[in-house]
Structures
1.
Amino acid sequence: MLPVGVEEGWRELVAGDPGGSWFMTPDWVLAWWETLGADLPAGAAEVAVWRDPGGAVEAVAPLLRTRLRLHPRAPLSVDCLTVLGSGAGAADHCGFPALPGRRAEVQAWLAGRARSSSLWLPGLDPGQAALLPPGAREVERTPCPRADLSAGTEALGSRQFRSTVRRYGRKLAAAGVSFRWVPPKEAGPELLDEVMRLHLLRRAALGRPTTFDAGRRPLHLRVMERAAQGTGPERGPALLVASAGGRVVGGLYGFLWGDTFGYYQIGWDPAWAPLRLGTAIIAEALVACADRGVRTFDFLRGTEPYKYRFGAVDRDDIGWLVPHGAGGALIGLRQRARSRRAARR
């Protein structure tokens, strides 16, 4: 339990950080700990907080002591410290929000932790490099494509692609499909369940696995609960929903934070594939975000070709390792092996 005022101060600290993201907020980090981390030892999580004499939060560093599996098909794992809220749950742009005057203290604190354990810090926002202790090695880059909405959506993608999207939009409208934006604090469990059901239906049709399933549902329900309790402007889980004949046939789920929307997952009935419903949902979400003053549509991790058809440009998250002992050396070998496999694809 954090002291009174820390959560709201933490939230506002991230909101004021140019590199701050939804995945750095207490709404995500603490929801992760309360659900996916519920079976971990009570002392596994540590949240360091720096405050000024008046109590204002000036830096937060959430860490988790865990065991990192070295290969998905081998039981070998090693102890390390990582960013609380990363890993399972697929968080991007992670990190430690801190005012410039506190960065040296956060760096020193992390250096102290690195003297007894390896620090494995995946998916960090690029601006986090200034907070890392000496000896930190860049061992991973994860492309996170994003589209610039500052000039609207009229110039996103090629002219031919935009024409195709409009054509299928007209066909969907003629078939009775409508779209609506569901803002934060109105996005509830029922719509989450519909998007998750349709996501699983689509993945099954493709024959592909997914982790956006019943095992992750408690995390997202708790995220919604926490976001609904926050004060201030609209931020948190939001959806773009497609309906036809009085039922939901598709939906896109993500997180609104400041002037950025992070697109997390999508689901739609495969029966609508001939009319490109999935593409239309993303296009409608882009328009809805632009209409609400969102400047960046973040597709999050992954280099699926469709993201670039919408005009997205890569921006890399960075994975850092501060190795300690044999365990740190093994994590380094793991990352080099993963990089070699990625280069061969």
2.
Amino acid sequence: MTSTTDRSDVVVGIDPVKNWHMALAWAADEAHLRGRGLRLVVAVPPRHDTQHVDDTPRHQAQQRAGTETLRAALAWAHARQPAVKATSFLVDGFPAGTLTGLSREAHMIVLGSRHLSRTAEFLSAGSLVVPVTAKAHCPVVVVGDAEHVTRETPYLVVGVDGSESSRAALAWAFEEADLRHCALRAVAVWQPPVFSLHSADTLSHAERRLLSETTAGWAEKYPDVRLTHEVPVGSPVEALASAAEHALAVVVGRRGRGGYAGMRVGSVVHGLLHRAHCPVVTVPAG
């Protein structure tokens, strides 16, 4: 796995037509926590190549809107985290492809969520969450439109299933919990098999042992992180969303052990992007 210290800026995609404050707040705070730069990006789709319609006015209007939004967002970021070096970029290109390309050198990509339905997310040209989450080379954080506030002791949730990307998510979650001085709840959801030669107690115990063994090394590396183990029974999406109801974020690997080789985003990630109320952090395997 590539160390998270090998990458540079925290990159946040700014959407001129939506509320960008929550995503930018997360990105600015994260850059401050990690002592990294902050890069604000607006991507303007290229002009349509057509002989019948002059698309220049639309393109120019989008460029103006992007420039004005970046100016306001940059000032807002400076006010929130004055010590963070923040820069802004207006880029010609399709937003999803642009941000995926930037992820090669980014420490993290942060996006706001439009809360589209499953159908709308594939039909909307402005939908970034699924394609960027699926192809990014660094962790992707998807932040909702409403501030997540809780009176509970701050904690993160990380999903553990033994897969390679799950191990990467666990490493990221421990590092984040240490930086934020918060607790970490490691959750391995157990789905009882329909048919098995082993008893339910035996299988449940095996799941708990896997969780304990997987987290042991990281717990030693980060002794100040208060770690708890949980093995709920049921749907992974529902169990993780429930555990993260008041969390600072829920952290998962991009593709779990239940997927197949051609999948870009696992079903758990996809479900959490629609179900979870807190920010969702998706970590690639390497």
3.
Amino acid sequence: MVDGQDFGRSMRCGVKCGNGLLTIAIAVPDEGAAISVSPLVGFTISKREIPLAVDRNRVKRRLRHLMRERLDRLPSGSKVVVLARSRASSASYTCLAKAVDELLGRAIEKLGDK
């Protein structure tokens, strides 16, 4: 079971990339840690950034779908946090998809540099 502290560690200790729409943080487990096979993805969409619940839920549904399609690109056992910014509520699906692809690519590249 995963709790909020796991994703908090990802935000603090993981590799972060962001733009005007999203911020993505990825943390991979340490060498000796038990590794779960599939990556875990969490979403943070704050009321301060996106005040209307309808908009927050729409953004979350879109991001959930986009990340589900990209799970195979993520390192095994990684924990990913996707943080939506205020502009994400007015962005189109294709715009969100481009942002996710760009940020995932940059974050995974940074992980390789570590």
